[in-house]
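Hi C.,

You asked whether I'd gotten around to modeling the 108-residue construct. I have! Everything is below, sequence then structure, no commentary in between.
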Amino acid sequence: MESSLDPAAFHAIQHQALVLDVRRKADYDASAETVPDAFWKDPEQIQRWIGALPKTHEVVVYCVRGGALSQDIAARLQAEGIKARFLAGGLEGYKAAGGRIAAKRAAS
């Protein structure tokens, strides 16, 4: 499985995937934006939430720019048998490609 998705490929599967916003807390708190229907998960607390993720459903993670953070989280999820990929370019790349943005909702 390819480990990344470009914004166009993400758009095609967005509504079928579980989308996780894994921006660091400071970055998440400083922003009013998110990908629609994404759930924020604190990357520093991955041990608390990794076990609740489905292994039969595709998971897409993103951070601010699609760098090391989301790549590392996707790799960690894959190592646990989760069908995970990261959004290339992160939230910023998604927005630059014309992706729809939503207001943040309460963390889960």
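If it helps when you're writing up: The chain has a mean pLDDT of 94.

Thanks,
B.
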